[in-house]
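fold-stage: in
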Amino acid sequence: MSTRQSMEFRAEAKQLLHLMTHSLYSHKEVFLRELVSNASDALDKLRFESLTNSAIKADAELAMRITVNADEKTVTISDNGIGMNREEIIDNLGTIARSGSKAFLEKMTGNDKADSNLIGQFGVGFYSVFMVAEKVRVITKRAGSDGTAIVWESDGVSSYTINDTERDGHGTDVVVYLKDEEKEFAQAWQVRSLIKKYSDFIVFPIYLPNDKGEAEVVNQTKPIWRRAASEVTAEQYDEFYQQALGGLGQKPLCSLHTNAEGVLEYSSLLYIPSQPPFGLFTSFERRHGVKLYVKRVFIMDECKELLPDYLRFVRGVVDSEDLPLNVSREILQKNAIMERISRALVSKTLGRLKEMAESDPKSYGEFWKNFGPVLKEGLHTDYENREKIQELLRFQSSMGDSADDLVSLKQYVGRMRDDQSDIYYITGESRDIVQKSPHLEVFRSKSIEVLYLVDPIDEWIINDLQSFEGKSLKSITGGALDLGALGKEEEEKREKAQGELRNLSERIKNILADSIEDVRVTARLKDSPACLVSGDHALGAHAEKLMKAMGQDVPVSKRILEINADHPIIRNMNARFEKAPTDPDLEQWVMLLYDGAMIAEGRMVADPLAYSKRVNEMLAKISMP
């Protein structure tokens, strides 16, 4: 029975292959980076499995060897790693990472360099070879298997073939048959240059023949995280970020290199990215970016046990001397050593962010723009570090001229008015909406700063941020306003007007009985006739809107209508009421007042058609001779 199979690529794979083969990428050289990275992964897997599975034996030296043949226009990348059997090669090379290819295609921007740097982030790295190859042959044999070797071959158009073959020992050979116009990649000097550029920090030796035909190691083999920080340059840190951690062509904002010795021994190299990594804000897929090694043996990607969810944007490597090599995710979740490493990493990361905030506010502002909403999650989930996180928070405020003008809680407290006892804030969808809120009027008149909480997560974490340095945080849209000594004059006027407008207030309350809980004279308005306020223990309007948008059942809570006794509309309404308490037009004016308050806080009126009709009728009466 023949062992040869001819198989078609899936439709999605064909689309990706066509893109790879016919693109005009100027960054075609990344194919070598991806093939070397794949070989490194195969060596990592063999090293780990040989330590945990007695049936698998590793060679004395795990390495990859690259050879070129300028006459035949070929590049061959060989490794003595884990290898693949027939089923694995179909899974790994026949489906192109299934969902990964779709995600890659959706992320495409049309920018050659940026798109080329995306390769490898979505499990499609191997197929970048078809940017330069007219044909690729993969010969592989699974370690620990008694079966034959397998040869996979394709021109990257629509199909591939698989057959049995022979290979001495386990591992994989990838033979790239270059297109005529890409023959430069069959030059040894070019390959050497690309290895130094992209793969210099691969932990396994990469052999390449020198001018005398002798194989020599062309990359550095001591992991960068194992070196002393004094031995590593800023350029080398950036190179490692690009080569090993998926820098996507972007430099990191900063790095944090630690070699801990003593009771707890580990090395770590962490980076704060300059741009949000792919999948950061996908709620159903909390992807982490720190790799775990034990005694230089790769254990797992995306190790969620090293850093909490609110630091999932951090990229890097952690290498422990104390964890067992056969550690599993289940063991990590209960391991005391892991918990201690994690606490140390969290403390160092938050400390590095604080240092950046103090010494380089511009870079920290860039960090906050990209990762601030994620960091805020820690207020709710990390009680131990809540105070440190509070120091890192930044907010827009009424004192800032734009969204780029951010203030810390410490800065806010430092510039509070002498008689001010609380920190005031308002929540909403955006700066444009909240800065127009009528609730701000008395605060502007008294030059009292108000924080703008305009991230969706702010509504959920505000209860975890009740105070800072002894100052309570208070919403300006909920409960009765109490400015203390700063509002003494307004409060005296309010109490006097409350009595004068008691009857009108009762009438308004009766008219709006289905919509509001109460009517009261306000001390918070200067220019607007009315505003809506949440009760002391009720959800705010913005919180209700967010919950409804998420499909959650929101308990019905009536708002409080506050009226401005000094506004001409309220004075005229009171005069009309005193003259004719049953005037039918009064009801229309009250309804317009309520609708106007709804619109002022950025909400839709309950019945737009009725509102429009009401406005037209009242305008018609005003215009009558």
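fold-stage: in (second)
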Amino acid sequence: MKSQLHLHGKRGVELLHDPLLNKGTAFTEAERDALGLRGLLPPRITSQEQQLARVLSNLRRKSTDLEKYIYLISLQERNENLFYRVVTEHLDEMMPLIYTPTVGLACQKYALIFRRPRGLYISIKDRGRIKQILQNWPQADVRMIVVTDGERILGLGDLGANGMGIPVGKLSLYTACAGVPPAACLPIMLDAGTNNQALLDDPLYIGLTQTRERGPAFDEFIEEFVEAVQQIFPATCLQFEDFGNANAFRLLHRYQDQICTFNDDIQGTAGVTLSGLYSSLRLTGQKLTDQRILFFGAGEAGIGIGDLIVDAITAEGVPEALARRQCWFVDSKGLIVKSRSDLVEHKLRFAHEHAPLASLLEAIEALQPSALIGVSGMPQTFTEPVIRAMARQQKRPAIFALSNPTSKAECTAEQAYTWSEGRAIFASGSPFAPVTLDGVTHVPGQGNNSYIFPGVGLGVIASESTRVTNEMFLVAARTLANLVTAGDLALGRIYPDLKRIREVSATIAVEVAEVVFERGLSRRARPINLSAHVKDYMYQPHYPHYI
């Protein structure tokens, strides 16, 4: 199909410099003549397949993951179709490079590796003109925005404007994993300052050199931004990403019933974790309503998971108060119980009647949980005594060490399997290699949000939903668990093979879209064939023919 309509009059060097349109040496003879490209490219015409082989050869010669990240991002800035062809066809290899764990290091080094701006940078000094800044974006039909203020990047803390690597990487996964068109994606950094003194002292830092704005000034900044997005990109879904705990819950609760928005750290993490629990129950033969779940870490990820688990249990007929008592939390000061006077608001709903306990190990011994979920950002805290205590009490304990990047994981896959004598059902946030123990190979599941958020986002966009609800994440979790095969479970893997991610995302998107239409949340009529509608929307990373 000819795509002249999408060129918008671009030709020559301008065309070669547009990553959405550029085909590099794959432009045909006719295209080179018609589009003013003759002489601007080497004479030999190569196919996308040949370009793909060249990219892989160059990439695999790089000696460090950070060098590979820089190479891939540079490719994305030149030729998006080729970039996504590489990523989608080699997702197992590429995902750890373009997202966790490498993106964490890339954010720490972002000022040093900064080459070409991607997305929009909006600072608190831009108040009063945010609408005009959004209008500077060249694409008019934006459907998915990922926005961060850089305060809580993965498990690395406040990285300020260097956190832009997260929205960029997240949107790459929307396209690679779910086929959301690149032109529909917009990464945004909201720079309200940073409290990271090392960044403030760094002459190469790319953000505002001031401490973080708090209080009414910050809220007014966010409010102006949200209102401007609604005016300039009225069909968009706004995903909040890696905001600090003080703001993440507050902003979600403020806006989730007003606009099409969600927080992946809270809701996406919850969906993928609940799905892992559903899959683990297929291995143990138990029911969710019979589980007792202990969380290590009570930030936005942990509380978000707890809330969705409560929704799932109550959906099976258990009263909410009883469902909440199946979820227990340990934070930096010990077990969260009602007698504590130091609890912030989002922890209060999981504060139960119990004697105070100072440590995770004491909580395990007292509560005898069937699942232990780590969302603390504190590495090596699932110690040998902790894992062995879980294994003493449960035949198949679920051990989820979900903190990212790899350096922050509560334990490794090898530790979980070894200390549980191979009985643990293990999942992690970052990838771990298979572990062979006593002649048995265990394949750890990666509880990566990319199993959930791309499919949910695709379903929301394709259905033109006006809201994103918790029910959509509950449906996504059930759908994902149902896509885990008997072969996956036989290996101990509680998530589908990543090679199936586009199929997984499309299936989740259809189920999410069904919720949208059932709840009357769409701007459009329901398509006759919803599955075909979703799949037709999905971008394929192949070159168009311009002539």
